[in-house]
């Protein structure tokens, strides 16, 4: 097929039987030995149909693919012969597998990345190896693995209905927290996503507050935020269930690293008398959060450069939720400390 692509268009239109036909010459050749006589003649390779025979004028008139396409009343069934990746992944052993995300045909294909954030480049070149070195624990060969403690509660069999029942969850906790895993080369914690949310209860009476909050969030993240609604009734504040009273957006990939880079190097150093983020923050599963007041929101360069566009009293504060791949708050705190996020106060593991 590679050799046919290099041919001219008239030659490619010939049938395969005519392409394979050769015209032999009767030119006598002199050979110095029997081995040279047995070798293929180069003249025969040159004197082929591909180089000598051309299309006749009547054949050139018939070869008009654009005319056939214009005269076609119905389109060819292109979707029938086009490759479609599977809609569902049926496991690693299924004969039909989805193409990788880097393939433009894949359903989850996203073009890019078109840039490499400085913070992410620092993480890949320096921080990842430093975290793995700091958290290394030497285990001598032959050491038995640690047993995972039983975190579910058993029934005391005080009732006949307790028989064959499943174990109960821990007391006072709706869900089980993640078990902390040792950091190795294949599970170094990194930032997964960053969610920015703001609550504007004043927007219930004045919708312009919601418009300002949405425009500020759009300037900070570059993505269109979604409007959130209240989920409870608070009669003292005049809040009813379903009122539009906030906006939020989530950043992934390079956008998340760029936003954290602006927070660390442009916003945190300009906050007056700021001690840092409380070390007790976290949900025991590797996700940390902090907040910005309306005065601190004005320190972002995207808001500061066009500060006259936003009414000063309508600029809201926001909450930042950093979701990481760490399995404990200790590992997530170590990751953010390497990025330059300061913590203060008592540390809770």
TrEMBL record:
Coiled coil: none
Transmembrane segments: none
Entry's Gene Ontology molecular function annotations: structural constituent of ribosome
Domain Large ribosomal subunit protein uL5 C-terminal stretches: 245-343
Domain Large ribosomal subunit protein uL5 N-terminal: 187-240
Family as reported in the entry's similarity comment: Belongs to the universal ribosomal protein uL5 family.
Protein name as catalogued: Ribosomal protein L5 domain-containing protein
Species this chain originates from: Staphylotrichum tortipilum
InterPro entries: Ribosomal_uL5 (IPR002132), Ribosomal_uL5_C (IPR031309), Ribosomal_uL5_dom_sf (IPR022803), Ribosomal_uL5_N (IPR031310)
Keywords of this entry: Ribonucleoprotein, Ribosomal protein
Superkingdom as given in the UniProt entry: Eukaryota
One annotated Gene Ontology cellular component of this protein: ribosome
GO terms, biological process: translation
